[in-house]
Amino acid sequence: MKFISSALILLSFFPFSLFGQAKSNNTLPEKSINYGIDKTYEPYEFVNEVGNADGFNVDIIKAIGQELNWNVSIYPDDWKIVRRKLEVTKELDVAAYFKSAAREDSILFSRPISLVYYSIFTRADKEPVEDLFSLSGKKVAIQEVTIVEEYFDQLGFLDLQALQAYSSESEAIDAVVRGDADCAITSFMTTSYKMEVENIKNIQSSSDPVFITEYCFVVKKQDAAMLDSLDWGLRLVKASGEYDRLFQKWLTPKKGWWSENQDLVIMFLFILFLMAVAALIYIYSLRNLVRKKSQVIKREIQSRAETEWELIESENLRKKMEDFTSVMLVETDLEHNITQAPKLFYTILGFEEDDILGVNIRQLLTTKSVAKDKEIKTVLLNREFPYLDAEFEFKTSANTAVWIDSSTSLLYDQRNKIKGFKQFLRDITPLKQANLNLKDLNAELANFMYKTSHDVRGPIANVLGLVNLGNMTSKNKEIQGYFGLIAKSVEKLEHIFNDFKEVSFILHGDLNITTFDLRELIEEVSVSVFMKRNKDISKAQIDFQLLSDSQYMTSDRALVKRLFYQLIENVFEHNNYYSTELKITFEKDNASYYKLYFKDNGVGIPENLQKKVFEVFFKGKRSDINVGMGLYMAKKVVSRLGGELNLESELEHGTTIEVILPVRQITETLNYN
Asked: Histidine kinase domain: which residues (predicted)?
């Protein structure tokens, strides 16, 4: 009995001793084996992009070799060549086959490595093939010398149109993609792997698995001992967990990004939701606080605005009272004799009341003012206007001038008949004197600018002459470069003085009103603009459109020419001379005004610069000798002619400038001084 117990104890420890001994590959003799693989059977065994053997079977045999101290050499080739090398030429020791009864006559099979499922694959745009019986009349693609071919040999009752054998399952799937075959019977894992790697979208599995077979290592009939070692090594690989890791790596479908990160994304979104709720609560509370503060500030602003308005009203009332107290009402009869006058009136003129009453008011006026008084009262007697305003120059007792602003209207008696005139007068002598002083200063400034511009031209010409002489006598490139810089600076200085001279002429020159041909003037200016830059005027895209009955205009031709020059030059200087289109439109709004539109398709002017373009010395992006006075002078010309200039522009869509000028009379004599 004691002997039996001892034997049982020894037997119970024997497997563990054997396992521990086998797992230590240091105790096993080193051995070399040759393993053959199908080079295109992904993901089980294949040659990767760098030319090395790879796949599930390859990693398993390597793991077994590590456990058994085998030196495994791997030989990839076409599948039918691998079979011949194992079964016929005996060059290989081990390979991986699908198990079938027909093959057991020539080779030995190990324990299964994995199960392989074969399905029918068709194009997604074709009718699916759901089972083997639906294959009748179809062109079926398979891999040659495989278990699928053996199965079809057994299924002789199927009436196939053609059974197309290819060297690999990958080529069989490619045949379906090209349309050379109606369907392919390949392993589900291999086809799925190919579709993922090559991003194939138009292939579908149209059936349940039609074949399920075991995938095993195989050896030659005489290598039964090696087969036992393979089985034992496979058990060791599974026991160590390496098999599960490799199965997960190669044969388990990869989870998508969403599957792997779903929980984290949901948690992150939930946190964002909580943060958004907290932010909304905070914003709501802050909004209530701001609303309360805003109401307080609004009440304070309203209170201050009411106080400020009261102050403004008080100031306006004070000014009105001052104006009212300075207004004088003077009445005259139809013979223009003064019948009533306030004390302020004869005090300003230096007379006593008795000296004023009954005196003809025209005796107190200068000759020019007498003519103006006659004209005004004649118009009033014709009932053309209810009242007329004018400025009169009175003579004091000391024979000095007093300027008085007058608003004259008719004076009626109780029967509503005209009995004379009433005039509301206000002394404007201080303002008039200030204006005259300002005009004198402007005249002196204009005279200074004109003379300076004229006198400086001689020295400038001398400097330019010396520069040209230096360029002709010096051969030194560096010195010639300096002379060129001096010439540019002097030319710029000359341009500045010319612009000053132009501004002086615009502001203070006499107006010479004539009638001239507008189309002829535009052509003349356009030629000048293009010749200045040595451009070909024949390539210019300038269109003149006449919307008036006549192309003639009555105004100061010299000033209008300066205006057109600055506007047309500005269009082409800031754009391309040949690709820019300029459309000039002329119309007569009524009998009193002309309207001209200068519209181009250029780069346009940014909104933040549109108010600055008419400022003096504003150049925009121009960096040549121009100093930025073009549109400034254009604005001054329009102002000098009593007109209006408006600009409308949109970036990258062009600019339109509207010019409104009054219709002048040729008999007008307009002079600043």
From this structure: 451-665
Angstrom distance (rounded) from CA 374 to CA 21? 141
pLDDT tens, 176-216? 999 999 999 999 888 888 888 888 888 988 767 887 889 99
- Assigned token pair, 496: 């500045």
Helix (H) or strand (E) holding 45: strand 45-47
- Extents of the domains making up the chain: 114-211, 509-662
Other C-beta atoms within 10 Å of 539: how many? 10
Token pair 């006593």: residue: 352
Alpha-carbon gap, residue 600 to 570, rounded angstroms = 11
Pair type for strands 338-340 and 387-395: unpaired
Give, rounded to a whole angstrom, the gap between the first and last alpha carbons of the chain: 150
Residue 641, token pair as written in the block: 């002619």
pLDDT, mean of residues 351-361: 86
Distances (CA, A) of 595 to 71, 523, 545, 591, 598: 100, 18, 12, 11, 10
For the record, the structure tokens of 474 come out as 């010096």
Long-range pairs, 468-475, Cβ under 8 A, ≥24: none
Element (H, E) at 588: strand 581-588
Cα(438)–Cα(656) distance, rounded to whole angstroms? 36
- Entry pTM: 0.37
Residue 181 has a pLDDT of 92
How far is the CA of 422 from the CAs of 336, 338, 410, 411, in angstroms?
A: 10, 10, 6, 6
Contact 494, 457 (CB under 8 A): yes
**How far, in whole angstroms, is CA 488 from its chain's centroid?**
38
Considering the four listed CATH numbers 3.40.1190.20, 3.30.565.10, 3.40.30.10, 3.40.50.1100, the one that applies to the domain covering 509-662 is 3.30.565.10
Instruction: Find, among 650, 542, 657, the residue nearest to 599 by Cα.
Output: 657
Q: How many CB atoms lie within 10 A of CB 78?
A: 15
Taking a C-beta distance cutoff of 8 angstroms, is the pair 654, 582 a contact? no
Closest by alpha carbon to 94, among 225, 210, 211, 3?
225
Cα diameter, the chain = 171
- Taking the domain 114-211, which CATH number applies? 3.40.190.10
How many residues can be counted in the chain? 673
Query: How far is residue 152's CA from residue 118's CA, in Å, rounded to a whole number?
Result: 13
Residue type at 330? V
Contact 216, 186 (CB under 8 A): no
d(CA 449, CA 496): 11
Q: Alpha carbon of 467 to those of 296, 390, 645: distances in Å?
A: 73, 59, 42
Instruction: Tell me the H-state helices in 240-383.
Output: 242-250, 257-326, 343-349, 353-356, 367-381
